[in-house]
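Can anyone check this?
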Amino acid sequence: MSLRRELTYDDWDQVLSDLRKLAAGNTPHGKWNLTQSVKHLNDWLTFPMDGFPQAHIPIRWMLAAMRLTVGKSTLKKIISSRKMSDGVPTMPQTVYADDDQAQAAAVSQIEGSIERFRSHSGPIHASPIFGEMDKHTAEQLQLVHFAHHLSWLTPNND
């Protein structure tokens, strides 16, 4: 039996409410604790606003091939199903060591990044895998990504 929560977010207020519950106490059921998850999510939330890191050339070619073949259809599937696949590799620089001492700072940082994303009126940088997208599509992808990772954490006072 999986202890993973069935979780879908429709807006940032739901994310912030859940983050506050998790910050008050939680039980992780996956590989990452709240701090690790939030730091990872913060990175991916800021990339569309600030630009994605440049991958090494062989990885760039692979990402370009994915973007040109399955990128758009995968993005549509993620957004329509409100689900992301488990076990998909991520950039190593967005995977953090276990550091529960940094939880309050990580949660505070992501709250600020969420507010920044909400009010962002500049361009949305193209995703290395999914390509160009408008802010609404980027937001929907982010909400699915947040639910994907935070579903592995259960609030202790729920």
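Reply from J.R.: I decoded it. The longest strand covers residues 26-28.
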